Amino acid sequence: MHIPDGYLSPQTYVPAATAMLPFWAIASARVKRSLRLSQVPMLALGAAFSFVIMMFNIPIPGGTTGHAIGSVLVAILLGPWAAVIAVSLALVVQAVLFGDGGITAVGANCLNMAVIAPFAGWWTYRLLVGNSTNQKRRVFAGAAAGYVGLNASAFATAVMFGIQPYIAHDGAGRALYSPFGLEVAIPAMMGSHILVFGFVEAVVTGLVLSYVYRSDSSFVQPVVANTPPVRKYAIGLLALVILAPIGIFLPDALKAGAAWGEWGIDEIKKEAGYVPAKMAEMDGKWKAPLPDYALPGQEEGASKASQGTVYVLSGLIGFALLTGTVLGARRLIAGKDEPTGDSGLDAAAS
Amino acid sequence: MNRLAIPDWMRQQAEFEAGPSHRVRTAPGVRFARKALSSFSDLIAEMVTQKDSAMRPGYLQALDPRVKTVVLLSLVVAMTLVHSWGSLLLGYTACLALAAVSHLPAKRLLKVWLVVPLFTLVFMLPATLNVVTDGDPLVVLWRSAPLGFLPENLYVTFQGVEIAGKMMLRTAACVSLALLLAYTTRTDRLFRGLRALFVPSLFVTVLIVMDRYLAVIAKVAEEIHMAKLSRSIRSRGLRAEHEWVAAGIGSLFRRTQSLGHQVYLAMLSRGFTGEALVIDDLHTKPADYGFMAVAALIAASLVLLK
């Protein structure tokens, strides 16, 4: 998954490195803010640990071997922001000292393996664990987090490879960097990761957590004690729902028309002079229950107050549906344990 | 500088080779452990060779690490911007010339120089075919009547080979520049050179400590694998081997934590207050300005050559 130099165009590696800057800055600030002096060597040794676990070979059925990237494991053991620093530094050392991964691609590699993988994995872990101290549940959550984190990272890498022929080519349209488009890069990358390497990462992450929890019970502490209560989020979201009708009143007041790119068939015809055949074909295929955030039968020229009320109602319905789906999925996947506290290690590092 | 180099009597061979893992007879089903063991031995040998090479006399070794870091990394960026054969060949030739005047260990470098371009070659092979890169036929591999999803014609195109060749050359030049930096600069100085690229001091401090203990952690991992191999007659099955790998990583983590605590106490006892202080012995000399001028000339030629 380490992208070497020369595979990515400057149009990709410069934005990727730029995108990493705020992550490095936030990680650095967070670590500094909560920094006990002891964390400097812990971070350094965490980075060395990240480096070395990438070299562990894991047997795969069929006699071959694979590697784990270990980013999710480091995120669970040290905290996601500490993982951003530790894995980034491991990748920098691999690129600069050992030619493993490109120097120009350091930003891209860090984005994929030091941000996307740990955070995708960490959020999956938190979602599944809640504040349970049940070891089996944590091990399962760690395995699932490893699988999700690695595949998220692999997908981002595939997209970076896959966009090269479209954004960097010569006058004849031939690729200047990686020549495989998204239709090749995504199946090639994701096939092996979804079917094989994702499970390798899952097995390693889950089993290592199992070992660590068994050998040191202090690790089995609840994960999210300092998480702001759900009620605070709910109040904020409800406030946003109530403020949503601004989206109706402001465009009218400013005569802004429809949002760019959200035109209906009539507006397309007005702007472009015709309606593309496929677009006309697709029009009306799906009948939404609340089309244009209006009740069935509500007239188009209804009063602003009535439109605003239905807008708020639509927001509440969407809010309830999404919240219900997420909580239902969580209950289905993670069982009924309720969150109870926080992990000292995660809190210290993140 | 030479007197700091590892003396010959401490080395049994002219160059460091990987340890005894290469001579261990592997039990069936535990080749994964041997492969990992070889990787750790190679890593440690590589680190020793790099440090040794960086302390030997040579053109790049004598330069200010800050100048060297900025110039060589800028050349890596320049190499990713050029696309003509002339520029790529010039860049690669410049790398070889710099390696020669810096007396780098050719045998060890050759391994890396070959592996990365070969990986690129394998990656790029499908791109030489007309199904990926359309163009003039160079070697026809398949020609038939339309048959299901198979293409009517399958051939290697001239343009595909050109794209693959340029990609290999560019990758080889970039990895060479990175290795030039690694093999001619002591790592503590190299990381201090990163300060010239505005890398925050926290990162540089952590990098310096990390570099100091990377070999220690790798050595622990090597010992874990050596212990496994020396006690293995045959594989105990996939599940048991997975559990062993996990226990190895878990055990390494525990030892890392313990070592981190010891390092912290050692740093405290030496007066560490949160900021790593380094001796400011880096000075820019006329030779550094000369190197900058040569590099600027090379970079200009890379861009101008068509």
Highlighted features:
heterodimer, A: 350 residues, mainly alpha, Arp2/3 complex 21 kDa subunit ARPC3, two-stranded antiparallel ribbon, 2% strand, globular, disordered C terminus, B: 306 residues, two-stranded antiparallel sheet, flat
Describe the structure in brief:
The complex is a heterodimer of chains A (350) and B (306). Chain A contains 14 helices and 2 strands; from the N terminus they run H-H-E-E-H-H-H-H-H-H-H-H-H-H-H-H.
Annotation field: number of helices of chain A = 14
Helix content of chain A: 55-70%
The portion of residues forming beta strands of chain A comes to: under 5%
Question: What fraction of the residues of chain B are assigned to beta strands by DSSP?
Answer: under 5%
CATH architecture identity of the largest domain in chain A: Orthogonal Bundle
**What's the Cα radius of gyration of chain B?**
24 Å
Residue runs with pLDDT of under 50 for 5 or more positions of chain A = 337-350
Shape of chain B: flat
Helix and strand sequence of chain B: HHHHEEHHHHH
Instruction: Summarize the largest interface: chains and residue counts.
Output: A-B, 70 and 87 residues
Class from helix and strand fractions of chain A: mainly alpha
H/E order of the elements of chain A? HHEEHHHHHHHHHHHH
- Strands across the major sheet of chain B, in which order? 1-2
Count, helices of chain B: 9
Q: What's the CATH topology name of the largest domain in chain A?
A: Arp2/3 complex 21 kDa subunit ARPC3
Largest sheet of chain B: 2 strands, antiparallel
Q: Terminal Cα separation of chain A, in Å? A: 26 Å
Q: Unreliable stretches of chain B, pLDDT < 50, 5 or more residues?
A: none
Any chance you could write out the topology, listing elements then pairs?
The complex is a heterodimer of chains A (350) and B (306).
Chain A: H1 10-33, H2 39-53, E1 57-59, E2 65-67, H3 71-78, H4 80-98, H5 106-129, H6 135-162, H7 164-167, H8 182-215, H9 230-243, H10 246-254, H11 265-272, H12 277-282, H13 304-334, H14 344-349
Antiparallel strand pairs in A: 1-2
Chain B: H1 31-55, H2 65-81, H3 85-101, H4 106-124, E1 137-143, E2 153-157, H5 158-184, H6 187-194, H7 201-230, H8 238-269, H9 286-304
Antiparallel strand pairs in B: 1-2
Helix pairs in contact in B: 1-7, 2-5, 2-6, 2-9, 3-5, 3-9, 4-5, 6-7, 7-8
